[in-house]
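Quick one, tokens below:
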């Protein structure tokens, strides 16, 4: 990999960092600590406000919190700057978390992840993270997306359809007016 032109090396490094952030979001939403932990190097520290410490502790607490307070949650990563400096990178990523309570509104949280990434060997991962919460809000719950007769439902384990390789559609063709 050392033989790549510098411009290509930068693109590959940035994509590896983005991939780590996507694994974090997917792992959190699927309650899959193994996938989420891939975003971090050993010895990393995460300051999530309500938890400051190692990633294993954060993931355990996040899974417990989400299981207790929501029946569905999605963590989105959006606008991003990646400042590469050799084997280190300063990364700022905007996020949006939407968490639906079983009985009521959808809690919304917007903020930014400020991360220090390092490349160790060929792997980019977080060594330090500060999670900034910059706004919160709520949306009313609607029922169309929860109609089990219309839509497939996700699960918080490896039975979720996203783990299926190769993906197969198991339901018969239909066209339902909604």
């Amino acid at each position: 990999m050392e033989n790549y032109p510098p411009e290509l090396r930068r693109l590959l490094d940035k994509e590896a960092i983005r991939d780590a952030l996507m694994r974090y979001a997917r792992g959190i939403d699927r309650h899959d600590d193994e996938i989420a932990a891939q975003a971090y190097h050993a010895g990393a520290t995460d300051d999530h406000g309500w938890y400051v410490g190692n990633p294993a502790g954060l993931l355990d607490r996040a899974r417990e919190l989400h299981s207790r307070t929501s029946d569905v949650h999605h963590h989105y990563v959006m606008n991003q700057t990646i400042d590469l400096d050799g084997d280190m990178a300063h990364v700022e990523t905007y996020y949006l978390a939407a968490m639906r309570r079983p009985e009521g509104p959808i809690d919304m949280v917007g903020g930014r992840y400020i991360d220090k990434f390092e490349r160790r060997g060929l792997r980019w991962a977080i060594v330090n993270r500060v999670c900034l919460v910059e706004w919160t809000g709520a949306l009313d719950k609607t029922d169309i997306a929860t109609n089990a007769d219309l839509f497939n439902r996700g699960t918080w384990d490896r039975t979720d359809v996203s783990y299926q390789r190769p993906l197969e559609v198991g339901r018969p063709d239909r066209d339902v007016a909604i």
